[in-house]
Amino acid sequence: MADIMLHTSTNSGFTCISNTFIDDFMKDANGEYVKIYLYLLRCLNREDYDFSISRLADCLDHTEKDIMRAFTYWEKVGLLRLEYSEDNELSGICLVDVNGTRSFTSVHNTGIPSVAVSAGAPAVSNIATPFKPSYTADELDAFKEEDEVSDLIFATQTYLGRPLSNSDTNTLLFWYDGLHMSVDLIQYLIETCLDNGHNSFHYMDTVARNWTEDGITTVEDARKSSSAHTNTVYSIKKALGIGNRDLVESELNFIDKWANAYGFSLDIILEACERTIASTNKPSFKYADSILTSWNKSSVKTLDDVARLDQEFTKATVSKLSDASRIKNANASDNRAKANNKFLNFEQRQNYDFNALERKLLGN
Q1: Considering the entire predicted model, what is its pTM?
Q2: Dihedral (CA of 23, 27, 28, 30) sign
Q3: Does residue 179 contact residue 213 with C-beta atoms inside 8 Å?
Q4: Which of the four CATH numbers 1.10.10.630, 3.20.20.70, 2.40.30.10, 3.30.360.10 does domain 137-217 have?
Q5: Residues of CATH 1.10.10.630 domain(s) within the chain?
Q6: What's the average model confidence in pLDDT over 269-274?
Q7: Residue 336: how many CB atoms within 10 A of its CB?
């Protein structure tokens, strides 16, 4: 996704949080949505900052889906306005003056509207995840009395090699109680995240929410999804000539956008990767993204569509060259004609009396 212009109707040299936001908006919003909104306010006062969804996601350890979900919520309650280009791509985010917002609506379980999906925003499932509650001490104690939950907490602490904080325990029980994930699925989630080098509960919570949105309810579903993702990542690494190193978060976000937001099949993504290497001689995810973004705008679905675009581009190029050649030949013909008629084109600036000149030369 291209860089997005972030602007506001007001400007200041510091990050100011309105009391109206705290009193009327913050209390009803998901904590992660509040974090994203506050970071948007901070970005407004950062000079020479190239704002983009992927950069914001990396900074806050979110997925692009999480970011777009938050944007949609804040637009719904009237605190920001999403702006789209003629190509229906998200091109701007305008933060509306909080004090100028007369009314607001409490929104829960909000998904991304269809316009955001067609605009190139990360695709979001229609299955919305609930907000994460903060369980009381009594509720936590009641959960721990269940043998299944007690075993889950013990196993998780064993995986991590440390006791769980109250926040970690709250998140773990949210997966079990709020997302209705089975104990086996939760344990598989934790194992998978740790195997991939992610021991942050915040990251694991993002994966848990994404699994819920994608309809993953069993370990087998998760294995199939993980296997498909692993195969995609391995194939792309191979096509780009990337050796024995893991991809960084920004590179994985590109892959997520190509496969999920754009919905491209693996063969189309690999075609873009091969063209990237042919053109740049290096594994540039940004260059590959420019190709796939162009194909997405052209509604490419298959390799036949790619071939059609290539043919159209070739015809257009040949037509331009033919036009340029005709103009060049016409200019050359004009130049030759002028060269062959230099004497006739010479402007005689004086009319001479040859009889008078002759008498002068003879001394008459």
Answers
A1: 0.43
A2: positive
A3: no
A4: 1.10.10.630
A5: 137-217
A6: 94
A7: 10
* Residue 95 amino acid letter: L
Start-to-end Cα distance in the chain = 94
Spatial contact of 167 and 136, defined as CB atoms under 8 Å apart = no
User: Which residue in 91, 93, 140, 149 sits closest to 120, CA to CA?
Assistant: 91
pLDDT of residue 126: 40
Q: Which amino acid does the sequence have at 224?
A: K
Contacts of residue 22, Cβ cutoff 8 Å, sequence gap at least 6: none
Cβ partners under 8 Å of residue 178, min gap 6: 129, 130, 132, 133
Least confident of 138-142, 224-228, 260-264: 224-228
- The structure tokens listed for 25 are 């908006």
Token pair of 126 as six digits: 């229609």
Which residue in 171, 107, 109, 162 sits closest to 135, CA to CA? 171
pLDDT digits (tens, 9 = 90+) for 94-124: 888 766 543 333 333 333 332 233 223 333 3
